Fold this sequence. Notes:
By secondary structure, this protein is an alpha/beta fold. The protein has five helices and eight strands. It has an eight-stranded mixed beta sheet, sandwiched between helices. Strand 2 (24-28), helix 1 and strand 3 (94-99) form a beta-alpha-beta unit. Helix 3 (186-196) packs across helix 4.
Amino acid sequence: xxxxxxxxxxxxxxxxxxxxxxxxxxxxxxxxxxxxxxxxxxxxxxxxxxxxxxxxxxxxxxxxxxxxxxxxxxxxxxxxxxxxxxxxxxxxxxxxxxxxxxxxxxxxxxxxxxxxxxxxxxxxxxxxxxxxxxxxxxxxxxxxxxxxxxxxxxxxxxxxxxxxxxxxxxxxxxxxxxxxxxxxxxxxxxxxxxxxxxxxxxxxxxxxxxxxxxxxxxxxxxxxxxxxxxxxxxxxxxxxxxxxxxxxxx
Length: 250
Ligand SMILES: C[S@@+](CC[C@H](N)C(=O)[O-])C[C@H]1O[C@@H](n2cnc3c(N)ncnc32)[C@H](O)[C@@H]1O
């Protein structure tokens, strides 16, 4: 039976818990886009309409926890919590960091400081854009970005003999609850988890938000652990996203 635990705590406090080392860390780091967090979302306006005027989301952060996010501490966590480099080939761990385009270079540089010497950029293609409301924009954003970071040996890679391109479709499954403003779609997370891990491996999300990574991982029989600092977010993740999981939450 798979194991899963979501902690309502800072990932920096991980030493308080007896977590097994992970084959894969997936993290969607706070975008630190400060007061423009909702600039590409309909939620900037009341009921999503410009004519209604700005909502309380205009000029606000996604999370009050965003401003405090420390990338160096996150990299330290990953270097400690990922399994060590194995002797053989085809088994090494990896981390996948979703981030804003503007953060890619910073994440690569911090990764190197903590021994993640290599990276593969990933691009996710969305069929639509939330920025359509911003009428002054000629080109609207319809992509998401992530980096696969690894130390020296190539990560475990289940491609079944197929070529895997560095772009993926942003497939959404609306049967899952929508909890977090930047929630990552479960089909996308499942696809990534299948490529970089095997059943029985451990997946950790230190900034779990809605619990989407944990849900995707346990559905694929991977053990899953996560941290979420925000109490309300944590409660929604536990009650809505992870309530069907036939595994103990605590
Ligand atoms: C971008 S969201 C993650 C969204 C998530 N990937 C999803 O699909 O729902 C980042 C989350 O990290 C949380 N967070 C920020 N700093 C944290 C920390 N130091 N420890 C644990 N959680 C943190 C925030 O409260 C927020 O819910």
